[in-house]
Design a protein that fits this description.
heterodimer, A: mainly beta, five-stranded antiparallel β-sheet, B: mainly beta, 11 strands, about 50% strand, globular
């Protein structure tokens, strides 16, 4: 089983839609969680950290469920500019920063 | 400006050759990482280093080697033992303990075997 798993998509949604991605992780001792955004042929950039109590940043909401070992990302009121690949990251052990396979999102006009 | 610099941006290698990808950071970060990304795939961890003169294998270390002689530098050598080296290689660094901190990436090196 992979340490971090995501549905690869693609998710094709109309502008204004709400879309949610999940990411599961296998190591119950994982301590930190993040969502990154990667545009085509570019390096990933941090979208948001995921805190135990859940957190929101504008149209983006991140949740952590330790009991079921998954994190989620909710995007409300999707924009064309949200089209990208979303990667979840889990830290495991000492300094091990593990990326999921990424979920592709395409927002359609 | 602080950041991570990877070079070259594009690299072509003949089969059987070793090549070295450069990664330099001036962020004073302790931890550095090398990832490989194949088309339509996520990032897979090759090697990482928490501190100078120390590094650990990631999930796909076979056919690769690294060194960490200076805090700022973490070069990756793709050896002839790596059977399918064509990929996008990304270097990253993280400050401090690595917990709950952002990873900063270089712009990547696209390696093609010809």
């Amino acid at each position: 089983r992979k340490e971090v798993e995501q549905d690869p998509g693609p998710f094709n949604v109309p502008e204004g839609a709400t879309v949610a991605f999940n990411c599961t992780y296998s190591n119950s001792a994982s301590q930190s969680f993040f969502w990154y955004r990667q545009d085509c042929r570019k390096e990933p950039k941090l979208l948001m950290s995921v805190y135990s109590s859940g957190n929101e940043d504008g149209r983006f909401t991140a949740q952590l469920n330790r009991a079921s070992q998954y994190i989620s990302l909710l995007i409300r009121d999707s924009k064309l500019s949200d089209s990208a690949t979303y990667l979840c990251v889990v830290t495991s052990g000492t300094y091990k920063y593990i990326f999921g396979t990424g979920t592709r999102l395409k927002v359609l006009a | 400006d602080g950041g991570i610099t990877q070079s070259p941006k594009y690299l072509f290698r003949k089969e059987g050759q070793n090549v070295t990808l450069s990664c330099e950071q001036n962020l004073n970060h302790d931890a550095m990482y090398w990832y490989r990304q194949d088309p339509g795939q996520g990032l897979r961890l090759i090697y990482y280093s928490q501190i100078v003169n120390d590094f650990q294998k990631g999930d796909i270390a076979e056919g690769y080697s690294v060194s960490r002689e200076k805090k700022e530098s973490f070069p990756l050598t793709v050896t002839s033992a790596q059977k399918n080296p064509t990929a996008f290689y990304l270097c990253a660094s993280i400050e401090g303990t690595g917990w709950n901190t952002e990873a900063f990436f270089g712009q990547g090196t696209r390696l093609t075997v010809v």
